[in-house]
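worker-03 picked up job from queue 'complexes'. Input manifest follows; two sequence lines, order preserved.
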Amino acid sequence: MSGRTFFGAGFARGFSKAWLAAGYVFLYLPIVALVIFSFNDSPIPNVWSGFTLKWYAALPGDREMIGGLWLSLQIAFFTACGSVVLGTLAAFALVKYRRFTGRTLFSGMVSAPLVMPEVIIGLSLLLMLVSVQRVLGFPERGMLTIWMGHLLLGMAYATVVVQARLQDLNPQLEEAAMDLGARPWQVFTLVTLPMIAQALMSAWLLTFTLSLDDVVLSAFLSGPGATTMPLVIFSRARLGLNPSVNAVAALIVLAVSVGVVLASLAIARAERKRAQDMAAAARGG
Amino acid sequence: MNRLRALLAWIVRGRTAVIGLPYLWLLAFFLLPFLIVLKISVSEVDGVVFKEVLSFKDGVLALSVKLSNYVFITEDDLYFKTYLSSIKYAAVTTVLCLAIGYPFAYFMARAKASLQPALLMLVMLPFWTSFLLRVYAWKGLLTEHGWVSDLLIALRVDHLLLAAGVIPALGKFMNSPFSLVLGMVYTYLPFMILPLYGNLAKMDLRLLEAASDLGATPWVAFWKVTVPLSKAGIIAGSMLVFIPCIGEFVIPELLGGPQTLMIGRVLWDEFFSNNDWPMASTVAVVMVLLILVPLAIFNRYQAQAQEQRK
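worker-03 finished. Artifact:
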């Protein structure tokens, strides 16, 4: 900021701080409200009628919610693993192999699920699965089909994350390893993999949460008896305000906060270690 | 045998597997499903069976494309209005996200360098909390005598909103165009902030010094230097907000009302309530066409920008 602002630099600084603060209040207000209302004795959030833990106490007996949570966690785990594998392959194909047949189609298809409305992805996947089922007799709609849908979306996100990291890599390190006689697989596991490990971790976490949160794809692809937690929450939220949803929300916020703090600590430690290794290597050279 | 071994070797060779595996997956689970939707939208229905669009019988190759669904969409007022109102709500959301997000990203990018990672982290953190629950939370905040609605009434904003026609009555904020747009702006604001921040943080600040040396006031320098340089970020952010908003289903379902027509919801009802698969497919195909237009413009712009960088 140069001094010649209309209102003066002090005003500009104050204004920018106020704008940022208001923005963060906007982003966090609903999250804070959910947590506060989960302790509200009254079932309607209009009035605060005293502190209670009864909504939490009721959760373990809520078989629909617990069943949904277990199913969601399983699907999210397999989605995250599958997305990282497929996403890493796709990112390698896009970054390492500049030219191959159908590259434009490939890169278009990789990123399309990111912008395509989920109702369309859900509808098209379901119609295909129904057609396949008519011919082959499987797959039944359920956990497997939900996983397939989540994997398609998760792969797109994982590709973006891994691709960004791969593009920043110094290819000379891999070339050096090859010059020293490493086989391609060794180059990958000993050189490339450690360098992209952090991106793989973020991609895994991102796709895990993505799957854990998805409503639309799950609704299209689920069958009888396969109700994920978001589907339970969504059907209750549709009917109106529901205190059990607030309690679940608060627990999710708690789990996410702990998870994010732990993950960022781990990432910061890995960064520091890498910086130290680099410094040590530089001294050694 | 040798040939088989050669084939196996070819498949196992890194390059083929690395490209082939995700490629096949995408063809099977993205392209093929969409072609099936396209087929169902134009095929004749015989009971519960969709007739083949392309048939070969007695030496005659017959192509039977039924366009009545598409004709119906253009003739039926409801669909036309719904597409139009989806575009309208998506556009309003995009403009509001830009109006709130551009200054936000700008101030973030010009904040102390040591603060920036934390500021960025705070924008991304809500992503990790359930989207569904955050949207649901607005239901409680906007309900009659909820926090936000009380605040808006205290500020006397509800009269303005009523006059603008975005709420149905004084004090009633839920299930209105207002609550729908609020929910969409809230959800998609980070998608606007992040690309803009990425763009603005990379800007060469010496250009602003140069502008100021040449006599530009900060305001003029902002409009003539900063904004044009951040065009790529503005376009990327706007696309990331506009396109998913058009097909949004969850937010209209939880926060929208009877007046807020959204195409994603119509597709859902067509499929789940009316069980009309061909119609749902047709709605989906038209929605894709609607999305392809801005996407094509965006891609062309990006290609041009890349050309210029070279």
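worker-03 released lock.
Chain A touches chain B through 82 residues (CB under 8 Å).
The first helix of chain A runs from residue 9 to 37.
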